[in-house]
Amino acid sequence: MLFPNAETRHCVRHLHSNFKNVGFRTKELKDLLWKAARASTTREFDNAMDELRKINQHAYDWLKKKNPTHWLRSHFSIRSHSDMLVNNLSESFNKMILEARCKPILTMIETIRTKIMLLIVKKKEEADKWKGILCPKIKKKLDVNIKDSLRCVPSYAGGDKYQVECGPSSQHVVDLV
User: Which PANTHER family match (predicted)?
Assistant: First the structure.
């Protein structure tokens, strides 16, 4: 195996395609699959899956057979520092190198190197326009999280643990470790 410690992730867009191919085609089922995949906590995931089970037991059973660490944000390892649910990056890269793929190996590698170099320069120029240390997309997500956190009340639970209440029916245990 080339990267024995690499995590396996499945593109949720492709998972959804397979989901449709076995007969689960409604928008409601699609939305619940994505809701489960995007859930950042196991509680949110369980709630989404409970909704799915109530609507379609067979769809629920089909998804439960999938390894949760491969497609669910709530089950991803924190080691990789990524919560991507789709493989757009690799598909974009494959499209970018399309013209180089039919060339002899050295020419192909040089073409890819040049394209990547130009892309890095373009992205650096865009990043130089940013105000602050975060990119605008991440800054926007952070601002939403900060706004949402204003209604949360933490209570010290001993050690490195806190109980955080975010409304009457939403409590979470946060372990800082």
Answer: MUTATOR TRANSPOSASE MUDRA PROTEIN (PTHR31973:SF187), POLYPROTEIN, PUTATIVE-RELATED (PTHR31973)
